[in-house]
Amino acid sequence: MIYLDSAATSFQKPAAVLYAVREAMETMSSPGRGCYESAMLAADTVLDCRMALADLFCVKDPERVVFTSSATHGLNAAIRSLVGPGDPVVISGYEHNAVWRPLVGLGAEVRTARADLFEPEKMVRQFKRLLPGAKAAVCTQVSNVFGYILPLEDIAALCREAGVPLIVDASQGAGTVGLDFDGLGCAFAAMPGHKGLLGPQGTGVLLCRDGNVAPLLYGGTGSQSQEAAMPAYLPDRLEPGTHNVPGIAGLLAGVRWLQRHTIHWALAHEREMLSVFSERLSGDGRVRLFRAPDPALQTGVLSVQVEGLDCEEAAAWLGERGIAVRAGLHCAPLAHETAGTLEAGTVRFSFSPFNTAREVTAAAEAVLDLLG
């Protein structure tokens, strides 16, 4: 199989990730629930992962790094901490349903900053126009559909100036595009562990500016057990129940792999794969490539439309030939609506640090074969 669906999950992992998951299952129990060896080993692993993530994302206090089950889990916690029914909230026109649906479910007044694909200056102007009076803002770091790197630093500066707390959805950027959380001054940043961070599914991270956050779930934490209320301090306030220790151990191995290779290398490699793939197809007018005119505006995620073919049919045809891609709306109808692809959808090719030029060339050749 040629796996080109890393924007959904990083199916290809460093060998150390698989080893760490198995070792955790064989040697670790519940952190914070005992002073015996397996419990202490689990607690050390959880702390090590918290510290590694704090280092990677420039969070001074590792206790503000909270483990979740997914980016969706973290985004819901962040949104519910800042937003209530009727509150005006500004979002970009490229948000995932993990942002849009919680806001709609809360009955928030959603103001959508729409700007053409790969036009960051226009996006900044739209945020500036919509921010006055907003209770909060949410912005994705990278579009999961188009790999578009949004002007997050400029948007964060506007939010700081306006006194509007910002939530960052770093789902598609974490592990590929740098994120200085404390430097941005945002309230929260949520991300999955299973995409660019190369960890297992069922892991996620929520970075918090402070402890002023409403628990999404309630339960045991191994701390302040005599109290009916959740602990007031992080990370315990947002981490009820037993930790996913095997997942966190695997996530730690993925983060350490990235720290050794650097996220800058990972991004450069994915962009190289996108370039190899695109160059092979760019001369054929029957293939529409949603490629940024400035490579600095795009990660290794590329949406494609094939003339005369339904995107789902094209993806199924490729899948039958061992090429794994994703087609449709990618849980991001707002992004497709903003880019003008809502009716037809796209076929998404997303590259990883483990893809080779030979693989992506073979995938491009398959697209040409599909055209006949």
Instruction: Give the N-terminus to C-terminus distance in angstroms.
Output: 22 Å
Strand content: 5-15%
SSE topology string: EHHEHEHEHEHEHEEHHEEHEEHEH
- Residue stretches low in confidence (pLDDT < 50, at least 5 long) are none
**What average pLDDT do the residues reach?**
97
Task: Briefly note the structural class of the backbone.
Answer: alpha/beta
DSSP helix fraction: 40-55%
Query: What's the total helix number?
Result: 12
* Strand line-up of the largest beta sheet: 2-8-7-6-5-3-4
Q: What Rg do the Cα atoms give?
A: 21 Å
CATH architecture of the largest domain: 3-Layer(aba) Sandwich
Provide the CATH topology of the largest domain.
Answer: Aspartate Aminotransferase, domain 2
What kind of sheet is the major sheet? 7 strands, mixed
In total, how many domains does the architecture comprise? 2
Q: How many runs of DSSP E, i.e. beta strands?
A: 13
CATH class of the largest domain, named Alpha Beta
Describe this structure in words.
The chain has 372 residues and is α/β, with parallel strands linked by helices. It folds into two domains: 118 residues, Aspartate Aminotransferase, domain 1 (Alpha-Beta Complex); 247 residues, Aspartate Aminotransferase, domain 2. Helices cover 40% and strands 15% of the residues. The strands form three sheets. A seven-stranded mixed beta sheet has the order 2-8-7-6-5-3-4, sandwiched between helices. Strands 9-10-13-12 form a four-stranded antiparallel beta sheet, with helices on one face. The longest helix has 20 residues. It is globular, with a radius of gyration of 21 Å.
